[in-house]
Design goal:
Helix content: 25-40%
Strand order of the largest sheet: 2-1-3-5-4
Number of strands: 5
Shape: globular
Oligomer: single chain
Number of helices: 6
Structural class: alpha/beta
Order of helices and strands: EHEHEHEHEHH
Bound molecules: D-ribose
Radius of gyration: 14 Å
Amino acid sequence: MNNGGFHHIGLVSDHAGYELKHKIFELIKSRDSLHDYGVTSDSEPVDYPDQAKKIILGFDRGDIDGAICVCGSGLGMSMVANRSPAIRAAVVWSKESAVLSRQHNDANVLCLGGRLLDHQLALDMVLAWLSTPFLGGRHQRRVGQFNSR
Ligand code: RB5
């Protein structure tokens, strides 16, 4: 299966993203490079910052080089994940925005709103995101400016 340049993918959600996260897990579970950081049910509320920080730790440890985060809106997860300079997290809302986040922004974390998105569309977005490479060139120059002041 095409991994779009990623070697190890992390998958995480809070309670609000669990249902979509489980569908994503079923879709991509055959990838031996998949790391599931929970949650494993939506029965208890779980704070999304704690969940997003697991992805940051996964990057820091070198366990993953890409991740998919699902919360209610995708927004909270992206705000926390983007606190790591190693992460370029993108909240996407369509297949085109998912593809562009890879082609132009080299997004290494995909953030999805489990309560806002049509789930079938979200699954299509995941596959498109995972199989789209970064275009580099002028986009590399711009991405290279992200962490400078
Ligand atoms: C949980 O209610 C919700 O706030 C969370 O999943 C997320 O949408 C935050 O951005």
